[in-house]
Amino acid sequence: MTNIGILGAGRVGLALARKLSEAGHHVTLGRRDPKDDTLTATEDTGPRLAFADQRTTARTADVVINATPGDSALDRLTGLRTELAGKILIDVSNATREAADGLPGELCHPGGSLAELLQAALPETAVVKTLNTMLFTVMTAPETLGTPPTAYLSGDDERAKKAVAGLLGDLGWQPAWIEDLGDITTARATEAMILVVPHVLRRHGFAPFAVSLAR
């Protein structure tokens, strides 16, 4: 069992919390307002889920998942530098500016990546980028797609990536579906994949999909 903290209580954070809790992990969901009682552990996510503010969540977890909006994540997580020191930080977000129709638009960090900036800002934290190349429903149910999807990994710390691959397994990802791209600079490629997503969504709606390798 791993003590996991998830920053962000939107659709992505809640989906990950439910699945990881069901897998036996102790999960704390970090909300901006921890007193928000619209969700309870017994009602929606199981007995292993707790709620706290984001700073407490980062401080008390061994592994932290960033499921907050990518366009503001750098400032938010830099402010948690002390709490994140010595931890694994899994970044599943995409840093984009909103287009006129509300879908992802241009990249906030062209020529680089949010993951690289997070690693530079948090040198005592092992940042791993993954799960940002799919509709959020696929993150926790990859087996539902007709074609095996791909979960890419980017990060400088090999032990951290191995630990994250284990957690992906708990989310339903088979080892053959996990592609380790290399160090954190490779996140530039997977973060750029978000540029295809709004076009897919405009044509097909929010049907589950992933940007994957075919062999």
Task: Provide structural commentary.
The chain has ten helices and ten strands. Helix 4 (70-78) runs parallel beside helix 6 (114-121). 43% of the residues are buried. The protein has one domain: 3-Layer(aba) Sandwich (Rossmann fold). The longest helix has 13 residues, at 158-170. It has an eight-stranded mixed beta sheet, with helices on both faces. By secondary structure, the chain is an alpha/beta fold. A hairpin with a 5-residue loop joins strand 6 (96-98) and strand 7 (104-107).
> pLDDT under 50 segments (min length 5)?
40-45
What is the structural class? alpha/beta
Molecular shape: globular
CATH class: Alpha Beta
**Count of separate DSSP helical elements:** 10
Q: What about the largest sheet?
A: 8 strands, mixed
- Overall pLDDT level: 92
Per CATH, the superfamily is: NAD(P)-binding Rossmann-like Domain
Question: How many strands?
Answer: 10
What is the radius of gyration computed over CA atoms, rounded to a whole number of angstroms?
A: 16 Å
CATH architecture: 3-Layer(aba) Sandwich
Question: How many individual domains?
Answer: 1
> Share of helix among residues?
25-40%
Largest sheet, spatial ordering of strands: 3-2-1-4-5-8-9-10
Percentage of residues in DSSP E strands: 15-25%
Terminal CA distance reads: 34 Å
